[in-house]
Amino acid sequence: MRMNAHGGNDNLIHYFAQIQLATPRDYVVYVAEEVYSPEDEAAIRAQWETTVDGHAGEKETSAILAIRPDLVQSDAMPADGEGLPLGRLQHLRDLNVDVGMWWYADYPSHYCGDGIPATAAKGNVWLEARARGLAKVIRAIKDDTETKRLQDEFFGRLERHE
């Protein structure tokens, strides 16, 4: 199992899982997305103050404040709107056209959101909910026998040219 925690490679992770069907294998690749209970979802959503949030924004900064506060340089956080999207390719995005340059077009400094409202308490709420969700996913994967059975069936049918 691979739990992805980096938004920049979501498509690649899903592609990797799909290409596992190229050859038979004795294992299954699972891609786990965040899963929260309704209560955790409500608690997480209620605590955020910002609407634009990404790299080094309120969520990520809150998480780091919870686990490694010594790494957060609060005095270096821009308060001038630097983390807001510039919309430089919005004319294409409005038409559902995607290009690899989209992130840089909106966030040339790679700062997305606003880390100033971040707190360790918010980080703990988010991280604890993520841990509970991940534990639920791991339990489901450990109990899963159907995916491997279907994968074996799939490759068996390929071998028999069905």
Proportion of residues in β-strands: under 5%
Main β-sheet: number of strands, strand sense, barrel status?
2 strands, parallel
- How many strands? 2
Mean pLDDT: 93
Question: Could you tell me how far the N terminus lies from the C terminus, measured between alpha carbons in angstroms?
Answer: 30 Å
Write the H/E string, N to C. Answer: EHEHHHHHH
Radius of gyration: 20 Å
Output the structural class: mainly alpha
Uncertain segments of ≥5 residues (pLDDT<50)?
none
The tally of domains stands at 1
Number of helices: 7
Global outline: globular
Helix content: 40-55%
Descriptive report:
The chain is an all-alpha fold and 162 residues long. It has one domain (2-77, 114-159). The protein is 47% helix and 2% strand. The protein contains seven helices and two strands; from the N terminus they run βαβαααααα. The protein has helices spanning 10-18, 38-47, 58-67, 90-93, 102-106, 120-143, 146-159; strands at 2-3, 31-32. The protein has a two-stranded parallel sheet. Strand 1 (2-3), helix 1 and strand 2 form a beta-alpha-beta unit. Helix 2 packs antiparallel against helix 6 (120-143). The radius of gyration is 20 Å and the shape is globular. It starts with a strand and ends with a helix. The mean pLDDT is 93.
Which features characterize this protein?
162 residues, mainly alpha, 47% helix, 7 helices, two-stranded parallel sheet
